[in-house]
Write a structure and sequence with these properties.
Oligomer: single chain
Order of helices and strands: EHEEEHH
Number of strands: 4
Shape: elongated
Strand order of the largest sheet: 1-2-3-4
Structural class: alpha+beta
Radius of gyration: 28 Å
Helix content: 40-55%
Number of helices: 3
Length: 124
């Protein structure tokens, strides 16, 4: 069951209308989650489900940040973060490969002459 929120402690239900007059807040009793809806949104009014258990300034910040006008900036931030994660992963992979190669070389240098055959390739 959905219950429209018209009043709350921090007046978020009214302050959200400063971001866009067509926003409103609903509390879904089944999931115990707050939802942000927009009266004029095509395909349904639900915009987002809040990850917070109460209405406070985080709600306003999240709604403002997720507006369409910030879409391009948000995508750029995601891409920048993905590039950073990729560089970190590549660096970690190279570090692991270097360490393993060092261990192989160290092992090879400490083996007897009979053990060298394990590191030779035979072509048939």
């Amino acid at each position: 069951m959905k219950k429209k929120i018209n009043n709350d402690v921090y007046n978020i239900s009214q302050r959200i209308k400063q971001v866009d007059k067509d926003y409103y807040i609903v509390f879904e009793t089944k999931t115990k989650k707050f939802e942000i809806h927009h009266k004029k949104q095509k395909g349904g009014s639900l915009c987002l489900v809040l990850p917070f258990d109460r209405l406070d300034v985080r709600t306003l910040n999240l709604v403002y940040k997720t507006q369409v006008k910030w879409f391009k900036e948000n995508i750029m931030q995601i891409e920048k973060n993905n590039e950073r994660l990729e560089r970190v992963a590549q660096t970690n992979t190279m570090d692991i490969a270097k360490s393993q190669l060092f261990d192989i070389i160290k092992y090879e240098s400490n083996t007897t002459s009979d053990d060298h055959r394990y590191f030779q390739t035979e072509w048939h």
